[in-house]
Fold:
Amino acid sequence: MLLTYLFDGEVLFVRLPDDLAVDTRGTAVSEFEFLLRCYRPRSVLMELPCPAGAAAVSTVLRAERLCRATGASFGTTTSRAAPSLAAEDDTAAAA
Structure:
């Protein structure tokens, strides 16, 4: 399985792999559809790598559409802060 997931209460937490590529994107979407059917969550939180590549962004967009179709809310987060944001935080903290 490409996706890492946890189902807690009515929330499905899903993590996309850091090395998700265009040729494995379809498998990730199929796995996500399977998880939606099995768990029927009210909410989904998907964690994507930072920086996110085209395959990850495409997978997130497809997952959001699938959630909308099933009535589940959908949110995203990143696995770590973007380098540019971290540099801005350091600059702001020094000021």
